[in-house]
Amino acid sequence: MFPMAFIVVFRGDVGVDTATYIQLIQYIQDTPGYTNIFEPFFELLIYVFSIMGLNAREIVSLLSVITIIILLYSSYKIEKRLVIFSSCIVPMFFFDMTMNGIRYGLSFSIILLGLSFLIRNRSALFWMCILLSSLIQFSGALLGLLVYFLYTKRIRVFIYSLLLLIPLLFVFSGYLINKVEAYQGAYVSSGLSGVSTLLITLLVLFTWCTNKDMRYGNLFVLLTIFSLTLLSYVLAQYTYAGLRVQNIVAYTLFLMIMVNFKQLSHTDYKIIFLLFFIGLISFAFKMKNFYDGEGIGLSPFVPYHFYWDI
């Protein structure tokens, strides 16, 4: 992990949204009060780090470091966790969470931390993580509730939790309106949008189903994730928001398989081999996406350069 973390922390203007984050953070630093650009806690972090004397580029790097630390710590706290973390989450999400979608990366890493509390029956800390995650990026609330629903299979509590989201919708109304307007102008690039995420998700689901121990008692979870996978893919054919929903569903799947991996009565090397093979495919897809965007925008992934080369 150290080489990957080194690449993330010491990058220059690399990562599709990196330059945008730097510009927006500079704007927030120059503007008094809450700007409504990001969720409240994320802007609070920017404000605190600014008081510490950090510039926008340093804040972006620090947020990436925090995300990496939370991911590693949370994965360590879940039994038999490293196989799933290294074969699923790292290839598909690591660089995107730490070099591109910095806000969602930090938010989703906190949900993983919350899950590590949930499986140890520390529900209060889990709900605190959901709240904190949603105050960094609102989609963290949706991810957290979905994880809770699939982990506990308590439909009534899930419905009540959705009702509790209503106050948050009012709190984030200005921000959400801006996001809806942005998505209205964002269209998918082709009919193949989301195919790679769909393929990886289905392969991981198939791998889960091949093991009797992991499949036992999880038919509801498998069918729910399978249905959401297909629905999110269809949505991705019409709007860019569908691609975001696909990421939420795929990340949820990886978290659930991480939890259920401990059900193995013995080390199943077939499962481990399949997951690492899927991880290689996922990483290849991710690298292709990076190279397809070579030289496009203010901070493309390719060509890579360090911050001292700017």
TrEMBL record:
One Pfam match = EpsG
What are the transmembrane regions?
A: 44-73, 101-119, 125-150, 157-177, 189-209, 216-235, 241-259, 271-291
Instruction: Decide whether keyword Magnesium is in the record.
Output: no
The UniProt keyword set, sorted, is: Membrane, Transmembrane, Transmembrane helix
Q: Which domain of life is it from?
A: Bacteria
Name the record gives this protein: EpsG family protein
Source organism per UniProt:
Limnobaculum zhutongyuii
